[in-house]
Each structure stands twice: as structure tokens, then as C-alpha cells.
Fold each of these.
Amino acid sequence: MNGMRKVALRGLMAHKGRLVATFLAVALGVAFIGGVLTLTDTMNRTFDDLFADVYRDTDAVVRSNESISGNEFDGGADIRGTLPASVLEEVRNAEGVAAADGGVEGYAQVIDRDGDPVGDPAMGAPTFGGNWTDIDEINPFEIDDGRAPRAAGEIVIDRGTAEDTGFGVGDEVRVQTRTGVGEYTVVGITRFGTADNPGGASYVMWTTEEAQELVGEPGRFGSVAVVAEDGVSQRELVRNIEDHLESAGVEGTEVLTGQEITEETQSEIKESLSFLTTFFLAFAVIALFVGIFVIYNSFSIIVAQRTREMALLRAIGAARKQVRRAVLVEAVAVGLIGSVVGYLLGLGIAIGLTELMGLPEGTLAILPPSVAMAVLAGLGVTLVAALIPARRASRIPPLAAMREVDVDRSSRSLGRLIAGLVLSALGLVLVASGALGDEVVNVGAGVFIAFIGLALLSPALAPIVSGVLGRPLARLRGVSGAVAGQNAGRNPRRTSAAALALMIGVGVVAFVLVINASIRASIDESLEESFSGDFVVQSGSFGIIGLPTDVSERIAELPEVAVVSPLRMSQARVDGEDKIIAASNAGGFRLLDMRVVEASPEVEAALESPQEDLPRGTLIVNTDTAERDGLAIGDTVETHFLDDRRPEDAQTLTVGGIYEGDAGLSLGSYVIGLGEFEAAVPTGTDIQTIVQLADGVSVAEAEPAIERIVDPYPAAEVQSVEEFKDAIKSQLDILLNLIWGMLVIAIVIAMLGIANTIALSVLERTREIGLLRAVGMSRRQLRSAIRWESAIIAVFGTILGLAVGVLGGWGMVSALGEEGFNQFQIPFGNLLFISALAALMGMLAAVLPAWRASRLDVLAAIEST
Amino acid sequence: MTRKRSFRTVTAMSSVTSPPTVAARAVAATKIYGRGDTAVRALDGVDVDIPAGRFTAVMGPSGSGKSTLMHCMAGLDTLTSGQVYIGDVELNRLSEKDLTELRRDRVGFVFQSFNLVPTLTAQENIVLPLSLAGRDPDQEWLDSVIHTTGLADRLQHRPSELSGGQQQRVAVARALASRPDIIFADEPTGNLDSRSGAEILDFMRRAVREMGQTIVMVTHDPVAASYADMVLFLNDGQIVDEMADPTPDRVLDRMKKFGE
């Protein structure tokens, strides 16, 4: 065994060059995994520290015991009820309480000197407004400059915002809140421990009264933070407060220790970040998966080229197992080195990403489990990829030492062909059945099976496709083209493994592109068909910030305007389940083309005039909901908002209408009138307002008047129908850009594989190249032949990828037809671009091997063995 | 000799650039491998004219420099000093690109083994130099070459489907296809059994006698050499002898002297 290990490691050293691609594939894959894991660790630690700081001296927190989850709304965050100010008084009276104060927190955004809002809560760190408390223990901020706010109209802002905007103590600053835009005097600048602000979030703080008015609700607090007297433990304190509140008859509260609230907040943050890390990890896993093919191919080719050496070892008495192990030892060595180097690269990626995401600076969190996971993943992938080549090496008969080495023997295995055909067909059928039966799971499984099927078929397809692509090439490029086509097809396994690496990346991207194009087409189509407004007033940042309700009221008063339909939304409990309820007026149904198919007489009457509100006590549901919950006109439904202001009995609504919403544009399952909404949630704001102009008024005439009303709200935007469409579609752009990023990673790794395959093939064909050169092939012709061979492999992989990706995209779009995908569209332009890009990258991949081949000494090449 | 010349005239070689009598020439050709103490003089001032339209064999014991001479004359290797000419073109002065074109257009090659591109059919291999040049083959000439090889029914086969002898015949046909000024054959029968070897040698002789081609063949086999019109003997990098109208026995006798 020791001898064999020597053989393995000597082999490794002798063929270092051949393993460069393997090494790079492992390193790149591990770099991404390591980078993402380190980033996650770093983010988690940063936020853990942050909240440990925030709650360091808080011994207990009292808050409403009512929360509603928002699994499909507002980023999935839960929202929680508020407490009346009286709770604070009671808490202060509880035994063991040294100090307590109420906290208010909500949306607020500073407007800079150019009139632009600072920060973008939809894309980056949130922008908060709150109250300043003078109790140092529960106030994580401290005054860095100036003083705390003492009177109405005074604010303190965080150091980060101050530096971004240049505002300082004494400046008059405009701030947008739920109630509108106001002007306030900066009296102080705050710091957050040693940081400028908490995790990049901006903070404006008022006196408690003013904060309640602007970002909270008068007379109410979001929570109450408590400091214990010396010698009172957190547990004791919580018990005391609970007892006291109970005896005082205060209901609807819950009390947590400082420890508990810290842990809860930390885990919530972790969860909200986990989406991001999962996404990045998916990239990394794809990168490694692509790497498997690259590594597999390198080892296969190396084994093939060393057939004689292996046979000789066998002839002089090496056991199969020993030969197999020799190959695996090589794999371990390469995998280990690649993984370690990759992990180090990953640290660089992590640093880049923390900066890109604007995370507070600090040292990276390097945790042993993440290091181990990254390195083991790289090592594991390398070993798995090398298993089959190692087995193949061990099967080389000793006699092969005496024989001329033949080329690829086993590409046309009938079993493999049949399995490939069967699986491809099965996958196709599954996708089709999923598409027609609206079963997304079937589509996913089908795509996966079709992928495996195609992977099995690809060695059989490689010569065919090479032939098809080679023929026009032969006409265009003469012998170089013909030779390229022949060579691409002569080692079907090798070609197909190189192509498969590319297939994965292209497949994923094609899949996403098809879905993206289909969504866009669906949006266009549904807006075209059903949207009959002329303007949409967007409150900004995808509705996180609402506009005060008087904005839409003032627009409605304009003579140019016929119909104004504001839209509000909130998480609410509907018959005990957490749902979203939307509110609008009759015009909303008309402008969004939501046909009310059944209605009570009152609702029918209200729908007659578009500016009419829907009657109080009435709920309108869409047909799906009516069907699912068995609701009919006249049935009653319990609705409950947080801090619902309606009396208990007024929370039971009667179904007054059932509408058929266009899947692309609708108000969702439950719709109530604006009056009903306001009665329940007085602090509600308009997320969006749809405006239809009076007859004969042009868009150009009306726009200035509307703009004038919306102008004071810098985050808000008046959009024409075209702009509205673009705005909806632009939400897809972020996803799309990430996907292009993924394409680049996948293509780079796949290209490494192709470059490697070509380089090793060239090595193997040294004599043949010598011959071609001897009989008159010029260097240029030779380079061209090799580049085209590479391009053919790349195009082959791209075709496979496009096939799977478009198939999956079609299946997914069809299966989700009910959810608003009514259009299937293939983005031919983009797909063509990918194909051209792949071909080009294929050629680039071959530049180095081609150059080396063209520099071969003709005579030495011919005489080589 | 005059009979052979007339063949050449009949087949109308393109002979504007190459004088009809000498197809290739080496002048004081010297090739030194390595330097200092380990330097080896593979060629030591060789002067030789290869007559056009004749079948010339080059013989010598191994290490005599016969392969080196051929490689240098064919433009596959460069001399340390001296000159080689194909026709009146001096190879030393040519760039890599011009050398490649010269090999493609004016020289044919037959190697001992691995003569054919395995991915191309026999037909494609035969016309390979022409395809590389982007030229259409002279169909009449090509037909006559193929006819002479006796491979008309095997043209669509890949090299792996042909016997060793057939492969070498395809190689000779390829060398002939572009009607080069000169064909170099390096031990073309070295890997063949004697019957296949005889076929190839006969084929090459006919190419010279009936088609007016010029062939230089390096060999160490006296029987093979006997097919040539003339044999040049090399030893220690120098031409030491030549023999016209050789027979196997005479060649063998001459070769034996090298051992002494």
C-alpha cells in the first residue's frame, strides 16, 4: 500500500498540469460555499452582538400577546399589537421595578437636501422612527452631539444619517412618516454603542408624545421595557409584573425576560437572513455540482491516458484495490488542496459580500463547523467524482500493457441508451402531466428525471450533434471545421461530460428566463386587458411606506379626475386564520376589472357609482375563496385586525359579493370597504391609489395637478400605465440580475471543464496533430480546428441545457396558470444570446490548449508515443 | 533514364519553379544535436541531389543520420548549417508558415505508422492536403491514383477498418494526391508483413515509373531498397556510397561492410 501511495503521489506530481482544472473546479465551488457560510456566520454574529447590546440592561419586556403572522405579506414578518399607556403606569407600580418606559417604533424616513428620501427600506436596511427615552438602561442609543429631544418639533438623528446627509445640530429637516411630511429641528446626534447606527438602519427619534402621533398611535406603546431593582432577578421581575398586571385587571399582555427577548430577536433576524443565505448556498451548491462533472472528466481522461501504466502495475502484481486506491489518493490530495485554497478564496468573497451588503465592519466570523463543512464538501465532491474513474482504472487488465490503447469503448452501451430514453420520456410525461394538472411537484420531478435521462443519453447524442454541427462548419471552415466536428464526436463520453457541466448552468438560467419572460408577458397581458386606470400613485418602496389617506382624497377633488380608488392592506385574522385583507372602494373593482359575479342588493347598488365606498359590515371574497370555504352571499365571517377598534360584534362581516378576479391583478381573497378598514385600523395608509381621468381629459393635462399633490412625499411616485407596468416588472430585475450572476459562475466552471477536456484530448492526440501539421495543416488551421471543437462541445451542452430549461419553464408556467401565469413565452433573444455566449466561451476555453497544440514540434509530435 | 523522363513530360508536372532534373538538394547539410561534449553530429556536411522522377532509397545503419536527412530535406526539421532545397526553394529561408505551405503543396509524406487521421475516411485522408489548401482535387489524377491503389471500394472506410497494408496504401495515395514535387517515405513498410510491404513498394515504384513521381524512401531493409532506382548509403552523417539498379543481395553486401 505504501508503494502504491508513492505511485499515486508521484503520478500526481508528474501530471500536475492535468489536474489544474480539477483543482480550480474544487476551489471555485468551495470558495462559494465557504464564502456564504462565513458570511452567514458573520452576519449572525453581528446581529447577535447588536441585539445583545440593545437589550443588555433590559430585564423585562411587556408587550401585547396578540400577533398575526404575515407569511405572504410584508416580508413574512409577524406584526404585534400595541399597549395602552395605562399598562406602563401599572408596570411602574409593580414590585422590583426600578424604572420602565414605553417604546414606540415605526416607519420614518429623513429627506435629504435634494428632496430625496434617505435609504430604501424595500431594498436595504430599514428606516425607523421612534421615541427617545431618558432611561439609559433601556435606551441603546446615546447622545453623541447636542441633546435629547424635549419638546414637540425636536428630533435626534443617528450619526450615520447625519453623515450621509450632512445634517447637524440646529438644522431643519423634513421627515416623512405615516401621517405625512413634517419639518423638525435636529437637536442631537445619536450613536449606537460604538456604531453610527444599528446595522445600517437609520433612526429618527422624537419625544414620546410626538413619536406616538407620527409613527405610532397616540396614547399607545409598542412595548414597555423594564429595569429591575438591584437584587431582583429577571425571572422574579417577570413574575412580579405578571402578578401585578393580573391583579390590576390588565389583559392581553405578555412579559418576557431580557434574556428571552434578546434570544427571540436574534433568532428572528437569523430567520429573516436565512432566505438570503439559502439563496447564496444554492449558487454554491450548483457550482460544486457542475464541478463534479469537471472533476469526473479530468480523472476519466487521466486514467485513460495512463492505461498502460496501470496495466503495468497490475501485471507486476498490484491488486485491483490498490490501483483503485492509487487513483483515489490522487483525488484526496487534489480535493484537499483545492478545498483549502477554495476556502481561503471564500474568505475574500465573504469580505466582498459584507461590504456589498453594507454590513457593519468587523472581523469575519471563522467558525470550525463552517470551515469543516466547506472543506469536506470539496473533498467529498472530488472523491465522488473520482469513484467511477478509479473503478475503471482498477478494471484495466494487465494485458493492456502490451496492447495499443484503444479509444472510447463503452460509449454505446445499449442499457444506458435504453435507460436514457426511458427516463427522458418519463420525465417528459411527468412534466406534461404536471403542467396540465397544475402539479408543480410533478414538473420539478419530471425536470429532474429528464435531466438524468438526457445525461445518460448524451454520450449517444454527442456524435450526432457533433455531426450536425460539424457539417455546416466543414463547409464554412473547410478541413478545420470537419476535423473539429469529427473530434468533438469521437470521444462521446468525454464530450458529453464536459457538455453536461455547461448544461446545468444553462438549464437553470433558461428555466428562470422562460419564467421571467412569461411573467412579464402575463403582466402585460393582464394589465392590457383589465387595467382601466390612467395613473397609479405608488406610495414607494413596494408599499412598505403608505401615503396618508388625505392624498387620495385631495386627488379625488381634482376636476380632471373621475375615479380615485385607494388601496389598503393589512394582516388580519379571518375566521381564526392569519390572512391578508384588502380595502378599496367600488371603483377599485371597476378599474381592476374584478367582475362581481354575485352580490347582495346593497353591494350591487354601491358598485353602481365608482366613487362609492363599499357598505360597512360587508366582505367581498373572490371565487376561489368562496369555493374553498363554501361561502355564499349572506354568510358571516369573523374578521379581526390587531388593536381592532371595532366593537366585538362589528367584527363579524357578512359576505356581500363574490368576484372573479383576473389572476394577474386582483385584491386577493378578502376585500372590505375603506370605511370598514378605517374603523378597524385608524392608522392605516394607502399603499397604492388608482386614478381614472374624466372623459376628455388627457394624461398630459392631468399629470401636473396630481404631481403637485404627491410631490411633498419624495418616496411616492405618480406612474402612467406604462410606468406602472415597468415598475411591476422591474421587481423581477433583481432576481434576473442574480440569475445572470449565477450563469457566469456556472459557465466559468463549465468552461474550465471544457478547457481541461480539450487540453487533455490535445495531449492524447499529439501524434495526430503532428501528422496533420506534417501534411500541411497550418498553425492557424490547427488552432481553428481545436477552437471549433471546443465550441461544438459548448453548444452541445447549451442545447441540452436549453432543452431541459425550456421544458421546465413551460411546465412550471403551465402548472402555475391559476396563479396568474396566463402567458407562456420563450425569450428567444436571450436564449440565443446565451447560446452565442456559450459558443464564444467555448472558443475562449480552447485558446490556450489550441495555442499549445499549434506550438508542438511537428517531428517530436509524430515520433511521440 | 530517358524513358522515365519522358513519363514525367507526359504527366506534365508543374515544373516552372523546379528544374526537372533535381527534385531536392542538400548542400553541406550539417545537423548537430546537443552541445559541447554531448554534441552529436547527425549530419556531417552532406551534399546530395535527389533526381526528379526517380525512386531513391536512403540506407544506413541506425544512427547513420538517414532519418535526420529526410526530415531536414522535407522541412520537418532544420539544419544547423548548410542548405536544403526543394526544387529551387531554399528551406532555411522559409518562415514557419511558408514551410507549412511548402509541405502541403509540394511535398508528400509516408510515415512508418500512424499515417492517417483516424477520424477521417480513407477518401478524406487522401485529399487532406488539398482540403487544407482549400483546393479542389484534379479529379482525373485522383481517380488514377485511387485506381492504382486498388482501394476504390474502401474509400468510405475509416483507418481502423483497414488493414495495415491498406492504410499504408492510403497514405501513399495521400502523398500522391497533390502531385507533389517530391514524396518522402520513412520506413513505409517497417510495420508490415512482407506481402503487404511488397504491395506498397510495388505501388510506389509504379507511381514513379508510370506517373512520373519522385520518391525518396528511408529504409533499413535491403529488399525494400531493391525496389528503388538508386540507393544512397549513409554512415556517421555522411553519404558514403551510392548504388544504381540495386538488388537485395548487393544492398545487403554493401550494408555488411558497415559492421566491419
Amino acid sequence: MTRGEHWVRTLLGDAAVAAADGVPSVRVADGTLDGAAWRAVAVVPNPVARFPRARGGELGLDEGLALADAVRGAPPDAAILAIVDVPGQAFGRREEAAGLQLALAAAVNAYATERRAGRPIFALVVGKAISGAFLAHGLQAGWIGALRDPGVEVHVMPAASVARVTRATPDEVARVATIVPATARDIVTFARFGAIDALFDVHDPLAPSSAERAAIVRALVDARERGLGTRAPRERLATDAARRTRAPALDVRDRIARAWQS
Amino acid sequence: MHEIVVERLGGRAIAGRSHVGVVASGNLEVLCEPAAAPRTRITVRTTVNGFDAIWRAVLERFLERHAVAADIEVNDFGATPAMVTLRLEQALEAADA
Amino acid sequence: MNSVRTPVSFAEATPRERLRALVDDFVEFLDPFARVSSPHLAAHGLVAQRDDGVVVGRGRLAGSTVGAVAIDGRFLGGSIGEVGGAKIAATLEAAPGGALIAFDTGGIRLQEANLGILAIAEICDAIVALRARAPVVAVIAGRVGCYGGMSLAASLCSHIVMTEGARLGLNGPDVVEQEAGPDEMDARDRPAIWRLTGGARRVAQGHADALAPDDCAALAMAVRAAFGALSQHLERLSTTRLRASFDAALGGEP
């Protein structure tokens, strides 16, 4: 069982887990936290998925669509919790031919439109969050939490490909990541940019204690009550962290806002 | 990443500012602006180290021909001397227009 | 009176030339002289371009004041970093009457990874927000095409105009070959790559809405037509329609 599958069960209970739309790689669980309705969604491996390049838990063609439907089809009063643990994107010929960009865009679209229509969207990063997969499943949330754990990483491209594209050695890529925070892959450095609202210490990510689970549930319930689930991605720039680490972006936005007014 | 600055006296005014080029491999961008002081200052940022002497030769040759009161910024991505000279000339021509 | 007009290639035009061809009265925001460029590139031994490879501003299109964006595919592959990403998002967020976005991009700038991905999330949301009240027209007609996270942004727009020579996909052929092996994808087989992801195929599939020749005037006409037409994104992003097309895609060569 992957972290994603595990955390769906941990947070919303065993009995509620079911596949979305006949796509077993997208797990959906409906339940309640503190009396309010929630739907958790995670992408998990399916070794017999019909698209061979999407069998290891990647976000592929079928997964993108199933995510979109799971988000739109949630009970009207349910908040969405995206459990993020995706080892990568589906890299394949069929995927590019059939239009993987549209499958993922359908998921982005569902999350963004539902959030803008008033449905609270939350994300909890429990494993890897990769590039297009993270854009499609997680980054449109109004509130993002993450486990503080070495297995929790944010990448924009696999390391070997980064080395090739930038014409550096893998060692150089790893070295630069230690001095340029924007290229670091660990969640703690990523959190410095202001997009992670809470980091949770968990002794064993596959066997959280009831106290550890309770802390996360409390944070989710509290964040929902405070209306944080409907914030737009741009509001991350208003955090103290972003003021320190995203000053160029803030400067650009300020100047363009004023240029529009003149 | 390497920076080179060359300055020479020059009093001819230019009409306005200009921008040419692109920071693509083998290419460069040039920004040219009028200066209050009667000198040309050229500031070069380049990805390639170890070519100071060639840069200075190219820039000095350009400055000999154009004694303008200007601040010229060059952002270079490995352009040849001929390309650098071309872009400087283009920038000045556009600034004089 | 007929006049024979020489085609002017959009693919060979600079970003500013592209915007001037597509919108009227273009005024640039934060031009290169504003010197708002990337502070992250020096650490990678790279020289920053003063507009960070993104040209933004406002213009007039079919009677509306629109945000105008053109990504410079020549600078670091048109990749999106902190500054360029913020330029795009900020331009879209306050655009009164819609937007025109010329995509020529490989996606997130690797040298600014975390900042790039955050910016693209903001851009996607800005498109969804703007699209609800005004047209957001994407033009994919450059040399790099539209890849990576920005392919998601383009796919969210209300209209997409492409040329045959441009490509739209999530993962570039190099990355697919690197990750899945040369048997899966030969990145040097250019005809095959265009057959899979080029403009003609994408329009035929409904992943883009209109095909135009690589000519500035023809693209301007196509953009004006798109701006006044019914939005296409609901149909394009329909999971029912996509599921049927993915069902058909199964079983080998498209």
C-alpha cells in the first residue's frame, strides 16, 4: 500500500474507500471529520492499468479524467482533500498522442472551478509531488499541508532529465540544489516559499499514531472553519514567507497592477 | 558568469534609447540609453569566461568609432565578436533614430 | 481590388512583433529598461535577459481592452521563472476585457523550479477566473511550441489557435525518450513527433480549436474570429468526450 492509499484510509476510514469511475488508480473516500463532509482523493498504483506507462501511481490519461470527475462529483457539502503522492507523470508515446495535457488540464479545471464556486479544496502532501501532476492535483488547493519527511519531495522534472537538459552532471544538479532554494527538492525548503500552510511531524509515514492523525485532522477542520479552503493560489504571496522569498514576484505584481490602473 | 566594464570619453548625444537582440545561444541583447555624463560606458555580462582581452578589443574598436554619451548594457550568451559588433551598431542606429 | 500580400512568418517574428500583429495599440508593461529580470540565473552561470523572456502589456482586440502576453521561446526555451510567471499572472488578473496569450514555451524553468511551478499554478487560476467573464485566446505558433506546465494553462483557455508547425503536449520528446527509452519515443524522428503533437493533429482531435497558416495577418484574423466566437473550453475539457477519445487511442498508433 502506498502512502497515498494509506493516508486516505487513515484520515477518512477504511470502509469508505472506493474507486472512482472504474479507474482503480484513483481512490475516493467519502466521510466526515468533526461532523462535516469530506471527500479524500488520491492517485495510487494499478499494475494492470490499460495504459502501461501509468501503472506505478503516475497521473496518466485515465487518472486525470477520474480526478476531474471525482472533484466535480463530490457531494455538494463536501470539502475535497487531495492526498498527494505521485511518483511522476506518465511518460509515454500514447499519452502524448492522446493528449495527456488535456487529461491533466481537466483536473486543474475541475479543482479551480469548484474552488471558485465555493467548494473548499485542501491538499496534504504525503509523498512525491511532481510537476504537471502537482499542478493538476494539489496546487489549486486553498490550503496545503505536508508531512515533514525525507520521502516528501517536490520536483519539476526527474533528476536525470534535468542533468541532460541543463547539460550538467547529476552531481552538479544535486550540488546546485543545496545553494539555490528554488531548485531544492525537499519539502522543508519548498515550504519556505509560502505555499505550504502546515508541516506535520510523523514518526512513520506509513503508520501514524492516533495523536499524529488527530493533529492533522484538527488542522484541516480548523482551516476549513477559517475559510482557508477557497483561497486562490495568488494569496500564497501574502504570507510572511513569500514576502521574504518571493520579493521579485511581489514587485512585478505591484508594478503591473499600477500599470493597469494608469 | 562574468562582468566586464569599459568606459571612454564621448560627448555626442543620442536621440533616445533602444533595445535589440535576445539572450539566446550565440546571441546577445543590447540596451542603449542616453547618459548625462559625456562618456560611453559599456557593461557586459557574459556566460563565457576567459575572453576579456577579446571583449576589450571589440568594445574599444566600437568606442573609437562612436564617441557617444550613453550607457550601454550587453547581456551575452556566447556571441562571436562580429555578432557583438553588429548588435552594438544596431542598437546605436536605433537609438539615433 | 485584389492585392497579393507576402506572408510574414509569425514563427520568425519576435515576441513584440507578434503582439503588435495580433492586437492594436499595444503598450508594454515592464519593458527591458525596467530591468526587472531574474536574480536566480547568475548562480547557474547564466545571463538574465532583461524582460525575463516574457513580453506583457495591454492592447485592443475586437473593441475590448485585453491583456497581451507573448513568451520569448528564444530565451532559455521560453521557460517560465519567477519574474516572467509573475508578469503573466499579473497581466491576466487585472485584464478588463479578456486576454491574448502567445505560448512559445517548454514549461517550468528548471533553474527556478519551485518558483516556476508556483507561478504556473497562479497563471492557470488566472485563466480560469478571467475566462468566466471574457475571452482568453491562446496562440500556439512558435518554434518551441507549448509544453510542460504551460500546456495545462493553454488547454484552459477559451480558444486555442495553432499553426501546423507548432506543437502542443505535456512532455517533450526528449524527456519521454529519456524516461521511457528510445523504443517508446525517438526524439529525433521529427515527422513522427509533428504527426503526434503538431497543430494539424491537435485541431483534428479537438485539443486546439482553429488552425491558421504561419502568417501574422492570417493569425490576427483567426484571433479576432476566436475572440468573437463561442468559448470552446467546455467541450475541449469534457471528461465524457475525452474518455471516448482515450478509449479510441488504446491499441497502438493513432
Amino acid sequence: MSRPLLKPLLVLAFACLAAMVLSVGTGSVSVSPGQVLAVLLGEGSNLQQTLVLELRLPRTLSAFATGGLLAVAGALMQVLLRNPLADPYVLGLSGGAAVGALLAMLAGLGGLLVSGSAFAGALLSTLMVFGLAHGTGSWTPSRLLLTGVVVAAGWGAVITLMLAVSPAQRLPGMLYWLMGDVSYARSPWPALGLLFLVCLLVVPLGRSLNVLARGPMQAAALGVSVRPLEWMIYILASLLTATAVTMAGSIGFVGLVVPHMLRLVLGNDQRLILPACALAGGALLVLADTLARVVIAPEQLPVGVITALLGVPTFLYLLYRSR
Amino acid sequence: MNPLQTRQLVIDIPGRPDGQPLNFTIEPGQIWGVLGPNGAGKTTLLHTLAGLRAPRSGEVCLGERSLTDWKRRQVSQQLGLVFQDRQDGFPATVLETALIGRHPWLSPWQMESGEDERIARQALEKLDVGHLSDRLVNTLSGGERQRVAIATLLTQAPDTLLLDEPTNHLDLHHQVSVLELLTAQASGGHSVFMCLHDLNLASRWCDHLLLMFPDGEACWGPAKKMLVPSALERLYDQALLSVEVDGVPLFVPRKT
């Protein structure tokens, strides 16, 4: 069984690498794939060194980490709620993060404080959704989903209100943040580390997740401690989302679409799907970010626009064909 | 093996009086049938026996220890349950579904081995769904899904098999072959405990019966002693005619 798991992952890993090399090489000054590899090995001219290692690589890695985190978070939420519609955005997590970030921007704070505020907003939203859905004890997936959707709608209204009352000079920054943009991302390493850790964690947890996907009663009958596992998934997914949103603003669609595309092709073994989501989500966002940089260069588009514009038709096509 | 046992067990059905506390032991080799009208609490009892639901009072024991003192994983190695309704959130093939039954037997780091797959395939063959192993479960008919669920239980291979209406959706031939299969399990030293709606299947294949009345009253014992027309008429609130075939009583509803 381990061999059929390995092959798709290797293919995806190779695709990721190709996407990254392409992304690092593309821009106002293009660097060929061969030169990119040379720079990574410590060769190449000073200009190329600076361009690749200091300017483009961090951004590419940030895009990869963000996409990977969002896709894995989406896949986890879908297993938790046994509902293909679940995703961090639908569940109101990103709405909370956005409100947090915009509040910080309105207060004239910058940089780290915006990120921190976004993180706090995402966690607050998580607690709210789970607390309210948990309420009187019964915690059904549909109730959780509905609570999330309603909370997300509430955040949406708050965001609109904040945009309406904001001073005009702050609006562009806020809008860009809302649409998702990796250009403000700081060091990608913590996020990459988190992504890697989660992929490792999936190995021992994966089969339990497969069983949980059959429903909590069946899972309990097969020896899974359902409640602790469910809490763990939720906390993990929230942490992943909060990290991604903090890095790159609110990028929709990756968490919903990537796991689905992969499930249509690879089946539904979480031990395969979750690492595959990390790779495919990462690659998708790297490519989207590359496009976002070049389509109307020297101007840049927010990457969230690209993911949605590319993702929507692809997803609809796959869904249409899958019947 | 550790036989499943109830001690002064009262299942928790909201708004119902306690009724008769249950005290019985499902010994190896026995086939128990649970009979009762809709809403008598048959499914709740099965879930309580499997440890998925807390009882109102009393306890369920596996061997000498209470179910709650065992680890969930150890319980699932000894006790398996076929549910009445199944949710298939994500598409999965028949073989993948059956393989899920190996979960209690594998450590977190282990992948399913060829041996696990062999066990699953064998169980699917026994239930006459081996030829469907690559099909997606959600494309199967109700009866085929029911057989896949029973095959999953056989793959789990617990000592005590709990089944919630295992003959649901099955055609006559498959009803009989499933009950024959369960009989074979029991003669192999397993114990079987199932809810049934068909009095005559219960009469022909069960050696012990538990009758559950809607008011919480209950009685249990060897099948011969339980299959009294007057008790069954009271159980279902339905007039019955009884005939004897092959030495066991069979029942048909009386026309009004």
C-alpha cells in the first residue's frame, strides 16, 4: 500500500519544484531555470544572487507555504464536518482574521501588529463558531457549518462597515489585504515549518482520519477516540488558517478547491490527500502569484483574484466531468 | 474471550420510565435476537452495549471489567457493530470500506498489509460482494451496501458481533445466507446479538431472544420460552396466528 501512496506524491513534489523554479525565474529580469539552480548552488552573478535569494525566493516560498497551509486546513475541515463545502473561509475563520487585520490598519498600526491582530481575529472566530455550535451539547456537522456560515456573514458585514467609514488613504492597503497578497509576507520559514510538521503528523493520524470520515459513531465503534480527535483537527486547521491568513491576507478558494480536485483524482485516503494538498496547494499559489506579478507588469494583481479566476472554471469542469 | 454482560442496565431513552433493568450475558456460541416494536429502544440498546452511548444506570461489562474501563481500541478488538444507517460522506470503494475494519488491529504507524487486504477480500467473498470490490460504495444498491457493512464487521473480526437489523434491504436468499453466516460465526465461538424485525427469521435462527416493550419492560431467555403467541401479540399489539414448521413456531399476522 505504501508504494501507490508514494508515486503521486513524487509527481506532485516535482511539479512543485518546477513551479518554484519558474516563479523565481520570472519577472522584470528573467533568470533561466539553469541559472536559478546555479544560484541555489552558490554560483551566478551578484545581481542574480540578490534577485533570486533575497527578492524572489522568499516570496515564492511564502506563496508555497500559504497555499499549502490553506489546502491542508480545508481538507482537515472537510473530514471534520464530513461535508465537501467546509473550508476555512466558509467557516468564518478568515472573516475574523480580516476584521482583526483591518482594525489594526484603521488604528494606523503596521507590520507585525496587523499580522498579530489577524491571528487573534482568526482564533476568536474559531472559538466563537465552535463555542456557539457546541452550545447545549449537540455538535452536529450541519450545525457547525451553519454557525460558521452565519458568523462569516457577520464578519462580512463588519468588513463592509469598516471599509465604508475608513479614511480614503487607507483603503487601497485594506482592499489588497482583503483580496490576498503575498508581497507583504515576512519570513516564510515558520509557516513552512508548521506545514512540514503537520504533514509528519498526518502519518500516524491518517488512518484515524479515514475512519472518522465514515462518521463519528462508526469511528468510535472502530476504536477511535472521536472527541479528542475532532478537537485536535479543529485546532490544527484553525492554526494553519490563522498562519496562512496572517502571512498573505485573505486568499479564498484554495482550501475548498485543491482538496476536491485531488480527491477526484487520488481517492480519499487522508494519508495521501493531506500531503498531496500541501504540495498541490503550494504549487497552485506559487503559479498564481507568478501570474499575478506578470499579467499587468509592472503593476501587480492580488493573488486571490488569480486563484479564484483560475480555480472556479477548473473546479466546475472537474465536477461536471466527474459524474 | 470476554463475554458481553449487562448488570442492572437501564438504557437512556428520554422521557421513558426505567422499566425492567437488563441482566444477561451473551455467551460464546449464542445467537441473540432482539425483538420489539418501533421506538422500543433496540438501536439505543445496541449503541449502549457497544459503549457509544452512556446508560441511564447500571453497566455494560466485557468480561469482568466495565466497558468504560477498557481502552476504546481494546473494546473495538472484541466488539463490533453494524449500524442501521450509514453515512458515506466521501466516496470510497468497497474494498477500502471493508479494510476500515482492520483499524483496531493496526498501530498508528502501520499501513494495511497484504494480509489485511486478504482478510478484507475474504470477508467480501463470504458476503457475495467480492466482485464489487473496486466499485464505489455510493453506487451500490441498498442490499449490496448492507452486505458490505457486514463484510466490514467480519474484517474487524471481533468476538462479539452486534448487528442492527442485518437483514434490512436484503432479498430472501441473502437474508438466509447472512443468517447462516452468522450461525457459522457463532459455532466458531463468536457470539451474535442482533435486532430483527422478522419474527420468523428470529424464530428459525436465534437461540436466545430479548423482547423489548415500548414502556421499558423487557424479558429475555431461550428462544423457545420467549416465542409465546400471547407475549408476542402484546409486544407488537398485533393479533397473530402461529404454525409449527421444522419444530419451531412461525407467525403470521391475523387479518382483521
